[in-house]
Request: fold
Amino acid sequence: MVQTPDSSIPSFVAELVRAANETERVRPSEVRKLLFRAIITVSDLREQVGIPGSGTGHDAIVGLNAVANDIERQSSERMSAALLEAADLVRTLWVVLDSGVEITTIFWD
Reply:
């Protein structure tokens, strides 16, 4: 059963985009917190719409986690790109959830 989307999601997307546009003024620790919050949000939204995470290197969450875990070594451009990617993932999943579409995944042996 698809749940009603959280109305705070658009505000969070705006916060991610704002931080991406101001990475020179945002502390790396704050970028890390935003990325981890986005990872949790994406995981929750995926679960709600029925999309399993792959856990492979091709899973966007794995890439975001790698950036967040090594944030001190990331350039402003890489932090900005990761924040924008996180915003896109959250926004896209929120739109899917808001539309009421249910996704069923079938695994074949």
In short: The CA atoms of residues 3 and 91 lie 16 Å apart. The longest helix spans residues 76-99. The chain is about 65% helix and 0% strand.
